[in-house]
User: Fold this.
Amino acid sequence: MRKKIVAGNWKMNNNKAETDQLIAALKAKGSFTGVEVKVAPTSIHLAQAVETLSDSAIEVIGQNMHQATNGAYTGEISAVMLQSVGVNSVILGHSERRAYFNETDEALEEKVASAVKQDMEVVFCFGEELEDRQSEQHFQVVEDQLHKALFSLPHTAWEKIVLAYEPVWAIGTGETASPEQAQEMHAFIRGLVAQNFDENIAENVAILYGGSVKPANAQEIFSKPDVDGGLIGGAALNADDFFAIVQSI
Ligand code: PGA
Assistant:
């Protein structure tokens, strides 16, 4: 049985005190079963979050990392740095990193390879823009993104890969892919992994959906057979909403 995962991407939100408050509110919600729950605070709050969540099943993950281990890369952090504060999983390829920080598929290939080499889990994000969907290029765009960044990985690396399909037109817009659109794309993605690797890897890789997931729509999206959970932005900043989504799985 493949994993079910709900991950909260806090993006560039919450100062130190707010980070503590949100974590306390999440812990107060109590336990959950049958799902891995992860939260991604901003990098300067990772160590603090790892400490305050050390007695909880909620895992702390990074929002980004550089591909090099160390060196003259002002403002960046590496996999070994994340690991040194107890973070063993990282989001890579988020559409905001691609759009605002010029992250290319080539750079992402290096980042993924570097993370996997360090034995980190990667939550790899990808997805088409509105014009791609309108021109019916969405399957091709997704295939290209996966091909360029992931398909040169060795088979063994897939134990560490979680996929997150996030159509850009649905992120932070209130616009969600319909459960049918999500299922159609997730099944396509699983098929690509089977074609390029093998059935077993495809069957076991968790594919999350991201883009305006809320308590009101989570259950229907998560009920689809190839949707294994969600990557949550806005709704992850509210403990009640995030927990309601976790419980929808
Ligand atoms: P959203 O963000 O839930 O606010 O649409 C999702 C994401 O960016 O991962």
